[in-house]
Amino acid sequence: MPAYHFPKGFLWGTATASHQVEGNNTNNNWHRWEQEGHTLHKAGLAADWWGGRWREDMDRAAETHQNTHRFSIEWSRIQPTPDRWDEDALDRYRVMARGMTERGLMPMVTLHHFTDPLWLYEKCGWDDVSVVGLFEKYVRKVVEALREYVTYWITINEPNIYALSGYVAGDFPTCAGGDRGLNVAMRVMANMLRGHAAAYKAIHEIQPEARVGYALHYRPMVAARPWFPLDAIMRNIQYNGINMAFPSAISTGVMKSPVGNVSIPEAKGLQDYLGLNYYSVDTVKFDLSNAKELFGKRYYPENSDFSTTKFIANIPEGLFDSIKWINKTYPGTPILITENGVEDDQDAMRPRYLAQHLHQVWRAVNFNWPVKGYYHWSLVDNFEWERGWSQRFGLWGLDIDTQARTRRKSVDLYSDICEENGISDEMVKKYCPEVYEKIFHP
Ligand code: FCB
Asked: Could you say which of 3.20.20.80, 3.40.50.300, 2.20.25.10, 3.40.50.970 is the CATH number of the domain covering 3-439?
């Protein structure tokens, strides 16, 4: 029976983030943003993890043969005001991490996933360098509390998306009354790099065996018309602007930025692995009307295999290319796919998206590139930021009125994959026969 197998000990899991699943997170900048009407819906009770439903969801993860889970800690719960630590909240996270361990799920913890405590937001958040010391204190507190159960840490999730979606696109909150613009976004990113460096050192000081990295949202890009120099130039500007700030600083100690490079020597070399969040590939063309984004327009070609809301085009080869790029940039550095998934309430595309992307991961592994695990986004439908509940990324569906979960057929596919530690031709024939030829006779 033909099958693509993964190395022994490969990590199979799903990823979530505090504000997207916990519910009743009312003390952070996103709650404020939602109340001000900037989002399609409100997070509300979300998947009610704070109310305890993480337990049933972790049962689901474990019963379907996953062996790890990535979740995030909500800073505003741990430090509700600058002068107060909430030990009960810390304890709840400790119980969660232990609960995962007891179920055979290795917990991986993200320390910052898009949300900031309101008090930090009021004092200009990541746009003020004072955040670096504050973040380090919070990180120390969390690591001391959870080190018994956790060794894999993600300091910051997608700093590029945080900074650009807030300070340039205006879809995410910025700090209170803060300026916007590319200059500010890059200043924010520089502070995030300083925060990452401080957190990296603090974590290793407390827990020498820790593995510390960050999660990079990486977008491969192609020029719309490769023969047209302006498209090629725009492609490079967008590619570097969106992808390269963190990677360049980790490589060289200098943050590459379209508005002027910034020296951050303390960040050089500070990653034990790289977390890759991969969703799709952008096509880029020159667009005179888009000054805000430096005259480049990013889009998907019309004939793409689109997700329900056209948020994602299914381009699995892009995942292979992303891994290839990481391996070339940081030879030997372990790679974890910390997010990959698609919004699909009908579960029509997800099975093939999953199988095709994992086939590409297998190709990379087969070159002996050090990919150690895969976290699908996400376990259960959750609150998708400015897009609210309009996008359903869960393996399980969620009815937000009743909190009922529905098992999509992708659950069974992913469960089979995790159990088998590989993808067999039977699975593909059963769950997504439409891509059988692509996967087994490429
Ligand atoms: C990523 C975010 C994650 C989720 C997915 C769909 O950019 O890190 O929280 O929203 O996109």
From this structure: 3.20.20.80
Q: Is 161 near ligand 1, meaning CB less than 6 Å away?
A: yes
List C-alpha distances in Å: 47 to 15, 44, 57, 89, 172: 14, 9, 9, 18, 21
* pLDDT tens by residue, 221-275: 999 998 999 999 999 999 999 999 999 999 999 999 999 999 999 999 999 999 9
What's the pLDDT tens digit per position in 381-400?
999 999 999 999 999 999 99
Cα distance between residue 72 and residue 200, in whole Å: 16
From the CB of 157, is ligand 1 less than 6 Å away? yes
- Tell me how far apart the terminal alpha carbons of the chain are, to the nearest angstrom: 17
pLDDT averaged over every residue in the chain: 97
Q: What is each CA distance from 96 to 55, 142, 155, 215, in whole angstroms?
A: 8, 13, 19, 22
1 C-alpha to ligand 1 centroid (Å): 36
Q: Which atom of ligand 1 is nearest to the CA of 393?
A: 6
pTM: 0.98
